[in-house]
Amino acid sequence: MDLGSHAGFIIATYLVTTVVVALLIGWTTADYFTQKRALAELERRGITRRSASPRPSGVKEPA
Amino acid sequence: MPMALIDLANPTRFVALVERVLPWLIGATIIAFAIGLRGVALVPDDYQQGATVKIMYIHVPNAWLSTFVWGVMSVAALGTLVWRHPLADVAAKCAAPLGAAFTFLALVTGSLWGRPMWGTYWVWDARLTSVLILFLMYLGLIALWRTIDDPARAGRAAAILTLVGAVNLPIIKFSVDWWNTLHQPASVFRMGGSTIDPSLLAPLFWMALAFTLMFLTLHLAAMRNEIMRRRVRTLLLTQAERA
Question: What is the pTM of this model?
Fold first, then answer.
């Protein structure tokens, strides 16, 4: 593929776009795992929503 | 309001739907990008722009999304202020950083195209300036959301600002008709049909579809994250009140 005399501008366009898209995907994915961890930590401490079934600490679930 | 929208007012139901839909959206986005990028690689050089026309396949979809996302936020703002839909301000808040990123890319790629074609990276003409204002408005909205701690209060303030800012959308669209600008007039969606040759237009369609699907994917994922963040916040506040 011959990009001609303005190859630098074309490559820069695709490079900048790739970086920004990668940042958006990375930021969204990292945020998901952060919130998931935070909710799991609260649940582990017995802090749950009313709609979620409470699991009293020390009570083992049936096998 | 349609029943489907009322059903989705339940955040738990909405998160479950997002979990089901996301893998399909990710797949569709990857396929659209694969078809689009293959088309861009094979597209013939433009008789005036040469290979620089390949910049258009990034610039045009991002320019389109920069205004489309504000449109989505404006509908969400109505949802917050008029219908009081519980997910409306979540939708608006999560769209803003994506809209800012697309507008940033539209500005940067436009500059990278302008230098070889116009001989300059930037001119203060109506189209470029109105899009720069749009970018600053996105940043302002993001700052506003970060300034107010209570999500509901922040959502209402941001909704008003979003609707005021929507005035800029027709200005961006018609700036090339109302004023004498360096930016060319509409060439894809216009009365009398597109002025672009079909061989150049097909990859542009696929790239626009791919970027739009990517926006939908990231937007839904970010909304799910925001719902989880608000659950964490509510649980921590409830715990603090009990203590």
Answer: 0.88
CA atoms within 13 A on the CB side of B81: 16
Q: How far apart are CA B229 and CA B243, in angstroms?
A: 21
Return the bridge partners of A40, or none: none
CB-based contact B87:B14 (threshold 8 Å)? yes
> Across the interface, which of A4, A31, A48 has its CB nearest the CB of B50?
A4
Domain ranges for chain B: 11-229
Query: What number is the ipTM of this complex?
Result: 0.89
Question: Mutating which of A3, A23, A35, A42 best tests the B interface, going by the most B Cβ atoms within 10 A?
Answer: A35
B232 closest CB neighbour out of A1, A38, A51: A38
Residue B50 touches partner A, C-beta closer than 8 Å:
yes
Give the type of residue at B87. L
Position of tokens 């109302």? Answer: B178
Of B41, B55, B105, the CB nearest to A20: B105
Q: What is the pLDDT of residues A10-44, one digit of tens each?
A: 999 999 999 999 999 999 999 999 999 999 998 88
More confident residue, B90 or B195: B90
Amino acid at B23: P
Mutate to test the interface with A, among B40, B105, B234, B238 (most CBs of A within 10 A): B105
Say which amino acid occupies A44: R
Determine the Cα–Cα distance for residues B36 and B34; give it in Å rounded to an integer.
6
User: CB contact, 8 Å: B222 with chain A?
Assistant: yes
